[in-house]
Predict the structure.
Amino acid sequence: MLVTKSEGRLEAVLFGGASFRMYLNYWFYEGITPEEYNRVPEFVRQNNECIGWQDISAERTEINADDFLFTLESIKNNSRSEYQDKDFENYYYPVFKSFTQEVIRKGQKLYISI
């Protein structure tokens, strides 16, 4: 889930199980070049390399909100339709984008909990 603290209370949106991770697999399984890999969002690299937010021992990890927005846009604009579906279009993209933009607007920190 994505989490932020607002006015002394936690606010969160849920990922819906492991389904969101499927969208990150595009960069993991497609065998892209090192140059292409260096251009993917940090959030995606951490997923692939099991570091940062993806470290299973971390309970809640701060992530870069702008990088997470970049991740959402990268998923939305990828050329492989099998990595997109109605769940991404109708839920993940609009809900996560709005939540993250609000975090940025309020100057809050964005966390992820897996």
In short: DSSP finds five helices and four strands in the chain. The mean pLDDT is 82. The first strand starts at residue 2 and ends at 6.
